[in-house]
């Protein structure tokens, strides 16, 4: 009577499994390559990229999300980074280039720490703690109440966010439009709240 095959034998599909430092280095190299592609397109003065697909269609853009969508990425770690950028684009609509560059730098730093015999779990815990402390510092020292800013400052914030998008060339018009719309909604909400409060006081 033959013994049942082990889980390793059941999962074997003709390939080979490799682990260790060489694989970590390959992952970091792949992720860094993706980050380097979009790095020069970061910010309002970022450079445009010209992308040509298999049938010769040309796309010129400096939007990180668009660049990563058009890339043909095969490496698993690099694919994860592209998916991360796509999620950022879906959730926030901006910051895809920043997310990719930060993730690549975190991975490079983590790889150096692993080489120094620090366990990955400890590195992850350290990153999470650093995230909490960074958010706390930003909240306490770097944030300014919107009421303290003039309209011009808020328009400039909106303009910066639009500078890397397709409407970047008409960002003056659209930033003014967006700020006016948000302020109108805010004023309307304030009126509704005051109306509700006055009715409650009359009851």
From TrEMBL:
InterPro entries: Chaperone_TCP-1, Chaperonin_TCP-1_CS, Cpn60/GroEL/TCP-1, GROEL-like_equatorial_sf, TCP-1-like_intermed_sf. Its main location: cytoplasm. Coiled coil: none annotated. GO terms for molecular function: ATP binding; ATP hydrolysis activity; ATP-dependent protein folding chaperone; unfolded protein binding. It comes from the Eukaryota. It is found in: Cytoplasm. SUPFAM superfamilies: GroEL equatorial domain-like, GroEL-intermediate domain like. Keywords: ATP-binding, Chaperone, Cytoplasm, Nucleotide-binding. GO terms for cellular component: cytoplasm. The keyword Nucleotide-binding applies. PANTHER family: CHAPERONIN. This is Alpha subunit of chaperonin-containing T-complex. It comes from Desmophyllum pertusum.
